[in-house]
Amino acid sequence: MNHRPTLIAAGLLGFTGVALGAFGAHALRETLLERGMTTAWETAARYQLVHAVALFAAAAWQNTSQGT
């Protein structure tokens, strides 16, 4: 089974998690502070990164369990 699409998706999720975290911390900082949404934005970015790692781990686990 080809795991490349899953690994690409994990990479894209990781990239967007980092990018959105940086965007919220720098470009949207004042807006998020004014609206009291800083914690929500940080949590969303963290969940994005956790799911990217989980997707990568799932692809790696499938790869090793199939012996390829």
Description:
- Helix 1 runs antiparallel to helix 3 (38-65).
- This protein has helices at 4-26, 29-35, 38-65.
- The longest helix has 28 residues, at 38-65.
- The protein is an all-alpha fold and 68 residues long.
- The relative contact order is 0.21.
- It has one domain (4-65).
- It is 85% helix and 0% strand.
- It contains three helices and no strands.
- The model has no long low-confidence stretch (mean pLDDT 92).
Based on secondary structure, the structural category is mainly alpha
| Percentage of β-strand residues | under 5%
Radius of gyration: 16 Å
What would the principal axes of the Cα set say about the shape?
A: elongated
What average pLDDT do the residues reach? 92
Largest sheet data = none
Low-confidence stretches: none
Share of helix among residues?
A: over 70%
State the end-to-end CA separation.
8 Å
Count helical runs. 3
- How many beta-strand runs? 0
Order of helices and strands: HHH
Count of folded domains: 1
Features:
68 residues; mainly alpha; 85% helix; 0% strand
Structure in a nutshell:
The protein has helices at 4-26, 29-35, 38-65.
Topology:
Layout: H1 4-26, H2 29-35, H3 38-65
